[in-house]
Amino acid sequence: MGADGPLDEGARRALLGVQLLSQAILEYRPAFKILNLVIALESMLLERNHGPQTLRLLRRATYFTCGRAYDSMCGRDRAACQFLALDPAIRGDRQQLDWLRRLAEMGPPWRCSEWLSYAHWYDLRSSVAHGDDEPVTAEEASQAEYWIFMWAVEPLLQWLVEHPGNPVEELDQALAALEPVPDWQNPVPNPATYEPGNHPAN
């Protein structure tokens, strides 16, 4: 609630996200730092919904940061990659995303380090939230904190300010309007039968 009445959705998401990010800065325990960092992203980028929420978060977060470090934004300054093009809400796309992640873990040319980083941080957050006793290292928490504050926070908050009414739906519309993927990425090959030497990417 603002001074003049209820906040717009964008402002409400921004306020909650900043509060959680502030807690992450103050938190010295790696597990709780990663928990606050990732939940901050969730509060700004996810709606209450059933379905593949993890994949939605990874796609939406990657939209804001992929290529930002070297001024070449994926799907805007260059062709999109399948990590942004595939829609987790579509069952067939989820199958391709599963294949894509397996291919990416093999290395170039399928690897999207940013999508995989968000995936790793989300896995750490889930481990903490569900009582896993596998520790989050100080290095992991520090890397997540640096990347999110350096590259994600500013464009994400700017988006929420510029799209106050329905920022998440409008973000999905922006994702759907990205430049098409290169021919060699479409369709995503099955990693079980993938032969790098015979693929057009190589």
N- and C-termini, Cα separation: 54 Å
Major β-sheet, in short? Answer: none
Counting DSSP E segments of at least 2 residues, the number of strands comes to: 0
Low-confidence stretches: none
Instruction: Characterize the quaternary organization of these chains.
Output: single chain
H and E string: HHHHHHHH
Q: Helical percent range? A: 55-70%
Mean pLDDT: 93
Radius of gyration: 18 Å
Please give the count of helices.
8
Structural class from helices and strands?
mainly alpha
Form type: globular
* Percentage of β-strand residues: under 5%
Features of this protein?
202 residues, mainly alpha, 8 helices, 58% helix, globular
What is shown here, in short?
By secondary structure, this protein is mostly helical.
List the SSEs and their pairings.
Elements: H1 9-26, H2 30-45, H3 53-65, H4 82-85, H5 91-104, H6 113-129, H7 138-162, H8 167-176
Helix pairs in contact: 1-2, 1-7, 2-6, 2-7, 3-6
Q: What this model shows, in words?
A:
There is one protein chain. This protein has 202 residues and is mainly alpha-helical. Helices cover 58% and strands 0% of the residues. The chain contains eight helices and no strands. 36% of the residues are buried.
